[in-house]
């Protein structure tokens, strides 16, 4: 049920539509309405930690919800092709690694951290795409990170720093809290999250 609701909410996020408790019950939890609070909580946590999307109740009386990028960030990497997935969750992880490395994260430390999530340079990931292009090009152009050569390094070594847009939109404390929650949960906490499952649930939304 959690994966089904998560797919439904991702569809709503992609189409920039709000949703309601009634709509979620009718679409996903038709025969299990008593489980709605627990399932919504689990789906919301997974969306936040994996995709960087927050589910926010904006009208408690009407039980109306909107979906927005987490931690005040304004970028989600969504394309207009209707197929891409938000990658804000990975951006927050990268920003967290930079903070933990003392604000200057060696490139090798970044890839070591990302490899624990199954992300490798040059290998396409079903949620985030090709990570090297994303973190050294796209997010640099967007102003979230800086990617530069370490001074006087020979052979050349590179490091990541926070970019000006990251400082403007969020804080190190918020990022660290999110980062620690992800590490505490780990990928095994979401056994129903798979490429096929998420795609199937979105198509059925």
TrEMBL record:
Residue span(s) of domain MAGE: 1-197
InterPro entries reported for this sequence: MAGE, MAGE_WH1, MAGE_WH2, MHD_dom
Annotated Pfam families: MAGE
PANTHER family linked to this entry: MAGE DOMAIN-CONTAINING PROTEIN (PTHR11736:SF81), MELANOMA-ASSOCIATED ANTIGEN MAGE ANTIGEN (PTHR11736)
Name of the molecule in the record: Melanoma-associated antigen 8-like
Taxonomic source organism: Vicugna pacos (Alpaca)
Source species taxonomy: Eukaryota, Metazoa, Chordata, Craniata, Vertebrata
């Amino acid at each position: 049920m959690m994966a089904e609701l998560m797919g439904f909410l991702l569809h709503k996020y992609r189409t920039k539509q709000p949703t309601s408790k009634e709509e979620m019950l009718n679409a996903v939890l038709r025969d299990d309405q008593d489980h709605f609070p627990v399932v919504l909580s689990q789906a919301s946590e997974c969306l936040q930690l994996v995709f960087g999307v927050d589910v926010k109740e904006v009208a408690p009386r009407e039980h109306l919800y909107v979906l927005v990028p987490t931690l005040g960030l304004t970028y989600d990497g969504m394309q207009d092709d209707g197929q891409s997935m938000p990658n804000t969750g990975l951006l927050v992880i990268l920003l967290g690694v930079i903070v933990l490395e003392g604000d200057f994260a060696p490139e090798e430390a970044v890839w070591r951290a990302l490899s624990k999530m199954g992300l490798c340079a040059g290998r396409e990931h079903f949620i985030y795409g090709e990570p090297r292009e994303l973190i050294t090009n796209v997010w640099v152009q967007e102003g979230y990170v800086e990617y530069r050569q370490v001074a006087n390094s020979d052979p050349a070594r590179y490091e990541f720093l926070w970019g000006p847009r990251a400082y403007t939109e969020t804080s190190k404390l918020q990022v660290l809290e999110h980062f620690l929650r992800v590490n505490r949960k780990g990928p095994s906490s979401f056994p129903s999250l798979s490429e096929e499952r998420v795609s199937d649930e979105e198509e059925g939304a």
